[in-house]
Amino acid sequence: MAGPLTSGKVKSKIDLSKKKFAIVVAEWNEEITEALYEGAVAGLTGNGVKKSNIVRKNVPGSFELSLGGLWMAEEKKIDAVICLGCVIQGDTPHFDYICQAVAYGVTEAGLKTRKPVIFGVLTTLNKQQALDRAGGKLGNKGEEAAITAIKMLDF
Ligand code: DLZ
C-alpha cells in the first residue's frame, strides 16, 4: 500500500459522535466537487459522525477555499474543516497560481487556528483524471480528506 488507510473504517480513540466538522466546497467544476462532497460525508458518517454535526459552506472557486476554510476553523464549535475543490489545468498559468495559493492558504488556516484544515483539492491535467478521483476508478479523494480529518483529531 502506498499510503495510510484513506477509506472505510478508521480506528479512533475519540468519540466522533461529539465532533463537529465543516466542509467547504468550491463551486467551480461542480460535478466533481459535489462527488467529493458526497465522499467526504460518507467518510465521516461511516465513522460515527452525526449528519447534524456536519456544516456545509460553498465558495465560488478553489482560490476562495483558503478564506472560507479559515472562517470555518475560527468558529469555536467546529473541530475540523475539510476543503474540497477541483482545479483542472488550462492553457494559462492560472492553474499554478490557484494551486499554490490554495495549498498555502489551507495550510495557513490550520496553523493559525491550530485545528485540522484538510486539503481536499484535486489538481489534475484534465477532467477524466478528476472523475477518476471523485468516485471513479481511483476512489474518492473527498472520502480520503474526511479520513484524514478524523486521523488528525485522533492525534
Ligand atoms: C478562474 C478559475 C479557473 C480558470 N479555473 C478554476 C478551476 O479549475 N477550479 C477552481 O476551483 N477555480 C477556478 N477558477 C476560479 C478561482 O478559483 C477563483 O474563484 C477566481 O479566480 C476568483 O478569485
Automatic annotation (TrEMBL):
The active site is at 94 (proton donor). GO terms for biological process: riboflavin biosynthetic process. InterPro entries: LS (IPR034964), LS/RS (IPR002180), LS/RS_sf (IPR036467). Keywords: Riboflavin biosynthesis, Transferase. Its EC number is 2.5.1.78. 5-amino-6-(D-ribitylamino)uracil binds at residues 28, 62-64, 86-88, 119. Pathway: Cofactor biosynthesis; riboflavin biosynthesis; riboflavin from 2-hydroxy-3-oxobutyl phosphate and 5-amino-6-(D-ribitylamino)uracil: step 1/2. It catalyses: (2S)-2-hydroxy-3-oxobutyl phosphate + 5-amino-6-(D-ribitylamino)uracil = 6,7-dimethyl-8-(1-D-ribityl)lumazine + phosphate + 2 H2O + H(+). GO terms for molecular function: 6,7-dimethyl-8-ribityllumazine synthase activity. It is an enzyme of class 2 (transferase). GO terms for cellular component: cytosol; riboflavin synthase complex. The keyword tRNA processing does not apply. (2S)-2-hydroxy-3-oxobutyl phosphate binds at residues 91-92, 133. It holds the Pfam family DMRL_synthase. Catalyzes the formation of 6,7-dimethyl-8-ribityllumazine by condensation of 5-amino-6-(D-ribitylamino)uracil with 3,4-dihydroxy-2-butanone 4-phosphate. This is the penultimate step in the biosynthesis of riboflavin. HAMAP family: Lumazine_synth. Belongs to the DMRL synthase family. This is 6,7-dimethyl-8-ribityllumazine synthase. It comes from Chryseosolibacter histidini. The gene is ribH.
